Amino acid sequence: MSGHHAVVVGGGLAGVTAALRLADAGLRVTLLEGRPRLGGLAFSFRRGDLTVDNGQHVYLRCCTAYRWFLDRVGGTDLAPVQDRLDVPVLDAAGPRGARLGRLRRTALPVPLHLAASLATYPHLSPAERLGVGRAALALKALDPADPALDATDFAGWLARHGQSRRAVEALWDLVGVATLNATAARSSLALAATVFKTGLLSDPGAADIGWARAPLGHLHDTLARRALEARGARIAVRTKVTAVTPADGGRWVVDVPGDSLEADTVVLAVPQREAHGLLPPGALDAPGDLLRIGTAPILNVHVVYDRPVLRRPFFAAIGSPVQWVFDRTGPSGLRGGGQYLAVSQSAAGDEIDASAADLRARYLPELERLLPPARHARVEDFFVTRERTATFAPAPGVGRFRPGTRTRVPGLYLAGAWTATGWPATMEGAVRSGFTAAGAALSALGRPHVHPLEEAA
Description:
The protein has 457 residues and is of the alpha/beta class.
């Protein structure tokens, strides 16, 4: 093992990935995390006999970095991907109850892989379906790296390309809100173009959906710890870093309560405001830009019924406050014949501080409207989880505030989904940032390394 010591501050997906890559390269690694667990904002907790994920997280087949992460920690089989994209979409606005449509792909090449599904999608008129196809081709021609796209809002671009309010609700925001954590009106065109080009317009199978069939804590904490410890990494949880200071000889001192560590390399893999507080003077040209990266909330409503009310593993909804609903019965460990549904609500700024009673009065009738069997079921448990700063806000112009991984001070690197990954705030973006930070650190130390995605290629 190398004599070089790397300290990674932050045990979310970005920090764990950076630590794994550095340990795999032979460095001595210490991972410091202020919480009592790894996994960042994609974690699990116990509620009585249930194991509850704080929120529903999914990924796509095109998320090659997160898929590498799953493989590296031995969790691929626990979070499989659909054989082919298939999203049931319920429109709750109809007079005779919810109407089902599906967004599915075939094996045909892009963009024909979605043509049959779009042609029969009942939630859009024939003219709207044709308009969506034309807008998709125009979107495919965009370069997300163009700075002009970052300054442009997605909704304005959609309007200029003939997209009706109905098309935005039934298709563009259906996908965009879940992946960007913002409506089209509050989303950078550059980030929206990344999502739609990569997920829907790059490869026929790119948008096939994967999600965990085990608790997120098992993947992101238990298995991640096991993988890190197998490579000799030291993990310290409940350990909040208070200062990161340059020392003589290009080394670093990382202070924690009652102790300090010396390091050759430090990766700050913490939220942007926390990173701003730890950066030494001169580390960034404009450190205040980190404080200009806004945040966006995600709300999850959890309902346990006394019987099954949903036959599918998940569905999306339009014409309703409900966005996406997932069956979490198996992963939660629920027994006794009931069913546990998680209602995932992105871009939840209007509801993030609502009381559980108000949310119960709002969402239980909506679930009954969408799922007729729920009208005859008893609610055994109802609770809410809230992440007020779940992601960075993908607002137009945010790209100019997102820093790269390298700072102006040798040996100090940044990681996190909020850094300049080119991706929105997803698990994929977080893991990619960890790759980039570890790669930059290894290059500076003169350590040969191969990017894991290049290895897979």
